[in-house]
Amino acid sequence: MQTDLAKKLGIEFPIFAFTHCRDVVVAVSKAGGFGVLGAVGFTPEQLETELDWIDEHIGDHPYGVDIVIPGKYEGMGATDADKLEEELKA
């Protein structure tokens, strides 16, 4: 079943699996869906380990990472959307 979104993402089926388990991310993506790793509970070091493992096992299949970016936080100051966008590109 090909939809426009599935074609854009390079997946066979419009199925998305949001999970904290790297094995599920890989299995869903290899099966033609889009596995998404929920990263909010990981430390930076743990996230790097999980992403390295996924990269080693997923082949050329796409996957995503779900993160939470707070709208504001202590010590934030003014939000500059352009600056944030540049930081995300780095």
Please give a structural write-up.
The chain is of the alpha/beta class. It has one domain: Barnase, Chain D. It has helices spanning about 5-10, 20-30, 45-55, 80-90, and strands spanning about 15-20, 35-40, 65. Strands 1-2-3 form a three-stranded parallel β-sheet, with helices on one face. The longest helix has 14 residues, at about 45-55. The chain is globular. The protein starts with a helix and ends with a helix. The model has no long low-confidence stretch (mean pLDDT about 90).
- β-strand number: 3
Structural class: alpha/beta
Contiguous low-pLDDT stretches (5 residues minimum) are: none
- The dominant shape is globular
Summarize model confidence as the mean pLDDT. 90
Report strand %. 5-15%
First-last Cα distance? 35 Å
CATH architecture: 2-Layer Sandwich
* CATH topology category name: Barnase, Chain D
CATH class reads Alpha Beta
Number of helices: 4
- How many strands, what sense, and barrel or not for the largest sheet? 3 strands, parallel
**How many domains, in number, for the residues?**
1
Strand order of the main beta sheet, please? Answer: 1-2-3
Radius of gyration (CA) equals: 16 Å
Helix content: 40-55%
Order of helices and strands: HEHEHEH
Sequence-ordered SSE layout with sheet pairings:
Elements: H1 4-9, E1 16-19, H2 22-30, E2 34-38, H3 44-57, E3 63-66, H4 81-89
Parallel strand pairs: 1-2, 2-3
